[in-house]
Every structure is written in C-alpha cells, then in structure tokens.
# Entry
Amino acid sequence: MNDKDQIILAIESSCDETAVAIIKNGREILANVVASQIESHKRFGGVVPEIASRHHVEQITIVLEEAMNQAAITYGDIDAIAVTEGPGLVGALLIGVNAAKALAFAHNIPLVPVHHIAGHIYANRLVKEMTFPLLALVVSGGHTELIYMKEHGSYEVIGETRDDAAGEAYDKVARQLGLPYPGGPHIDRLAHEGSPTIDLPRAWLEKDSFDFSFSGLKSAVINTLHNAAQRGEEIKPEDLAASFQTSVIEVVVTKAKLAAEKYNVKQVLLAGGVAANKGLRAALEKEFLETDIDLVIPPLNLCTDNAAMIAAAGSIEFEKGKRAGLDLNGVPGLEL
# Structure
C-alpha cells in the first residue's frame, strides 16, 4: 500500500444484511462482502429482529475474514474502522457496533460512527465524485427523504415522509397481492407487465411542501381490492401494481425535480434500497435528461444495504476528525 492511501474498513448490520467492506481513498472498493438473510425472513413476510440479530452473530466474523482476504491487507494497513451507529434494529446494530469496537480496541485503530442514510447517499461517491450543492433522493424501506447537501458531511432534510416510507408501502401492497417478501422487486416486475388503468390517489400535500405521504395510497389499494372482491370482480394484479407504482413514482420524481430547481443544485443522487426500482430509475432519467443537472444512480449492488457505502461516508467523517469512544452504542432512531 502507498503510505498516503487511506484505508477504511466498515461494518454494516442495521437490518438483515451482515456486511463488511474495505475501501481505499474514499472511492475505490477493495472488498465488499454481504451476507443476506432474505431466505430466513421470507416465511414471516418481513424482518424478525431477533432472528436478524442471531444471524449477524453467526456471520460477522466469517464476513470480516472474507473481506480481509479479498482486500489482501492486514489490520496494520487500516486507518479507521467505520460502523453504522443507526438508525436500524437495535439488536442488529449492536452486533456491528460491538464487532467494530472490539477490532478498534484490539488493534488500536480509530473508530468512526456513521449514519446509515449518509451511507446510502455516499454509495454514489463510489460511482462518481460528488458536485455541490446537490440533492439526494433517499428511497428505502424505512425512509423517503429529500436531502440538500452544500458540502461533504452536511445534511439538510428538506422533505420527508409523514407516514409510510415508499419501500414500506411497496411491501404492504405486495402482501395484499400475495407476493413474497421483500415486495418491492416483485411489484416492479409486475408493474412492467401491466397498465396503470386503475385510478389511485397522489398525495401532493400543501403547496411548496417537499414531504411525502404514502399511507393514503396504500389504503386506496387495499380498498380497491376489497371492493372488487365484494362485487365479485377480478382485478388484474399487474394492472394494480402498475397503477400503484405509477402513483408513487410520479410524486417522488416530481418533488425531486421541483426541489432540485428550487435549491439550484448541480447534481441529484438517488439512494436507498428502492433506488433499485427499474421504473423509478427510468422515470428519473427521463425527467432530468433535458436539464443541466447531473443525475447519478448507483448500480443495483450499491442500492441495497452494504458496507462499502458506510466506508465511503466514514472516509469523509474520518477526514473531518469525527471519532467515537469505546462507549459507542447502537441508536435505532438516530437523526441525520
């Protein structure tokens, strides 16, 4: 390794992925290992916190060793250990936090706490350098937010969800349609086979608001299914999926475009698990095509939870001098 290269090892365990990554100089991935638990949670139709925590305990050392082997480095090469402090499931967070603290203590390496959503945003820096001021559109299972950034590590939430996050609405609608967990990819696939022929609401909220609301839409989908069942009519699942997805995407993309114009940003970054949605990616590309704004969409493997994104965000926090002591704790409701 070059003396001047900055090497960050990161651990992410906020939900149901046990992940360890090692990146160089904030942007180059040397290793990115993810152990997924989807198969274990599928039969419950959602993530069971206790099961998630146990899986993290079983996987963390295996994933760590695999990452170290892939990167072909020793602990002596590492400048800092970054770890997801929150938000997330408290039991799951604690496994990652305690593994990171143990490594930091054993090898006398600085410990850097990272916000999970900051990680999702910084996944984009592994694709392209960030240009400020920028707008990050975060769409995931637990979050739907518009975040304005005037510089590295500065986050101003200008819009957020008032009830269900987009990913949550996707999972609930998928359950109504009898689709397996996680529902997002299944609805996205179905939507491309159907037509948005069913009239569903769009929640625009007050004029000039960049906030989101999806619970009314979710209720409208449920009511549509119930009413049809009572009348003995059949609704084509692909048409309902297409109608639901069209409603979500129209609101999200329109608000992102308005916010980007109002805040006069140079770049728009898409982030979070729902960023893997093909319909959303295509709609954003179409919306920003004719503008001077640079749209960055990360590859699918960097949209879902991973540790490379935590390392990318951790690299910036490390440079800014942010450190945690060995009393670091998992914070399930951590604010950005």
The radius of gyration is 20 Å. The chain has eleven helices and ten strands. The CA atoms of residues 170 and 184 lie 5 Å apart.
